[in-house]
Write a structure and sequence with these properties.
There is one protein chain. The chain is mainly α. It contains eleven helices and two strands. It has a two-stranded antiparallel sheet. Helix 2 runs antiparallel to helix 8, helix 2 runs antiparallel to helix 9 and helix 3 runs parallel beside helix 11. It starts with 5 loop residues before the first helix and ends in an 8-residue tail after the last helix.
């Protein structure tokens, strides 16, 4: 289902391209470690832009679409935070210096936008063509949420030893000493991939895995491709600045994963029962969306507060 005209799509994509060009071409031309102040400012800028866009949606498309967009944004933003834990693990496993992480994340997010656009279009097409896929997606989210809830930290795979890394090194000519400043290097007349390109591939694959969870979750809120895609984009674009803002205190969010597991399970149950609840109790879509927003926000904020309170002795000031 699509409610936005083609001009809206063109205008939004043009805005994204301009912001990405300004980001890497002007504000971050030189590799550097973003300061806490810089990361805070950019995090606030992206949130402010997201809220301004939400206001435009509210004004142009109505209150219901405005609430849908904000709920989808909050959900995607909360689920994307889990990516940050993996980013820390990946960069640590491959020994990537902080000053080189920004550029890798930039290109990683650019690739993620393309991959997620394809997945969103595919997911909405499946749901609109086969209504029963809603129950498949819902069951998958419930399974993912329960798996995340009971998963232990020591069960997580080392990113530098995963199947993606082994396959990459087997297929692509690789220079292990190529560093993390360029994607390709030239050695003995041959073009070779560097560890920087390998890390980028791992980041892309990781985001793809997370998108398999997050996109069905957002599709449980709305099937409007414009709402799903734009909320996803704003959540992703602010991810790099949020990473550098929280990177030094990620170990303090030890209970956040439990909150995300509860959110995924809730969204999966909602996806499976939404039609029955609306028919049986006559509850309007708007009421379900508002309830979903309230529940997701409460769980997210609660898990963050509980995490920070239980790790207060660790400090964690950047």
């Amino acid at each position: 289902m699509q409610s936005a005209p083609m001009q809206a799509w063109i205008g939004f994509l043009a805005f994204v391209l301009v912001m990405l060009a300004l980001d890497l071409g002007i504000f971050n031309r030189k590799a550097h470690v973003p300061s806490f102040k810089e990361a805070t400012i950019w995090s606030c800028v992206w949130v402010a832009l997201a809220l301004a866009f939400n206001a435009i949606i509210w004004r142009q498309m109505g209150q219901f679409k405005g609430i849908e967009w904000f709920t989808a944004y909050v959900l995607e933003k909360s689920l994307s935070v889990d990516n940050l834990f993996v980013f820390v693990m990946v960069f640590s496993a491959f020994g990537v210096a902080m000053k080189n992480q920004h550029r890798i994340l930039y290109w990683g997010i650019l690739g993620a936008l393309v991959l997620r656009a394809a997945m969103i279009l595919g997911g909405t097409a499946l749901l609109n063509r086969f209504e029963w896929m809603m129950y498949v997606f819902g069951a998958f989210l419930i399974w993912t949420g329960l798996k995340m809830f009971f998963e232990k930290e020591d069960e997580e795979e080392n990113p530098s030893e995963g199947m993606t890394v082994r396959l990459f090194r087997k297929i692509v000519p690789f220079d292990p000493d190529g560093g993390h400043e360029h994607f390709l290097t030239k050695k003995n007349g041959r073009r070779l991939a560097t560890p920087m390109l390998l890390v980028l591939i791992v980041i892309e694959f990781t985001d793809l895995v997370f998108a398999v969870d997050s996109i069905p979750a957002v599709l449980a809120i709305t099937r409007d491709t414009f709402v799903v895609f734009t909320s996803n984009v704003f959540a992703i674009l602010g991810l790099r600045s949020l990473y550098f803002l929280l990177a030094k205190m990620m170990d303090r969010f030890r209970h956040l994963k439990i909150g995300l597991a509860i959110i995924l399970t809730f969204v999966g149950v909602k996806m499976c029962l939404a039609h029955w609840v609306k028919v049986r109790f006559g509850i309007a879509d708007g009421t379900l969306i508002v309830f979903s927003l309230a529940f997701i926000s409460a769980v997210l904020v609660g898990s963050i507060i509980f995490s920070l309170a239980s790790t207060k002795h660790q400090g964690g000031s950047p």
